[in-house]
Amino acid sequence: MSAAARERFAAMSAKLKASGLKSTPQRLAVMKLLAESKGHPSVDDIRARLQKKFPGISQATVYRTIQLAKSLGEAYEIAFAGSGSRYDGRKPHPHPHIVCLACGRIIDPELRSLGEMTREIAAASGFAITTFRLDFFGLCPACRNNKNGSRKT
Ligand SMILES: [Zn+2]
Ligand SMILES: [Zn+2]
């Protein structure tokens, strides 16, 4: 576990404790995975990865724990119409994503122009911007190189 992931997990478990809800081993395991996963896992991804340690852990348990982390401000949901949600516990605040349309990989781009873009939109619209969602879609380098790859569309 990286230092950043350890820090994220410590923040999550502290908030869970402060919330007065039980820090069950399953809840902590879900939050630990959220804290260390770079790949923006789905509920199913997390359930599959915890199956070995917690045989029979249900999708509902994983889902409710993620919602709990979200309500504590410790996880960010990337919702997609049709294909369900993916989650980021490393960066629990809104941030841009790049989504591969072929393999479903999601990464966090470094976007230096984001602040500038926000100011431009605020000035042009007169809105006080409080949050945003910004997703880019395309083919990742691996899928661009894989000519035999099958596209999920
Ligand atoms: Zn891809
Ligand atoms: Zn992310």
N-to-C order of helices and strands: HHHHEEEEHEH
Structural classification: alpha+beta
Give the end-to-end Cα distance, rounded to a whole number of Å. 34 Å
Number of domains: 2
**Strand ordering within the main sheet:** 4-3-5
How would you summarize what this structure contains?
A 3-stranded mixed sheet has the order 4-3-5, with no helix packed on it. A two-stranded antiparallel sheet has the order 1-2.
Explain what the structure shows:
With 153 residues, this protein is α+β, with helices and mostly antiparallel strands. It has two domains: 1-92, Arc Repressor Mutant, subunit A (Orthogonal Bundle), CATH 1.10.10.10; 94-153, Ferric-uptake regulator, C-terminal dimerisarion domain (Dna Ligase, domain 1, 2-Layer Sandwich). 43% of the residues lie in helices and 13% in strands. It has six helices and five strands. The strands form two sheets. A three-stranded mixed beta sheet has the order 4-3-5, with no helix packed on it. A hairpin with a 3-residue loop joins β1 (76-80) and β2 (84-88). α1 (3-18) runs antiparallel to α2 (25-36). The radius of gyration is 17 Å and the shape is globular. The site of one zinc ion (ZN) has 6 residues, from loops.
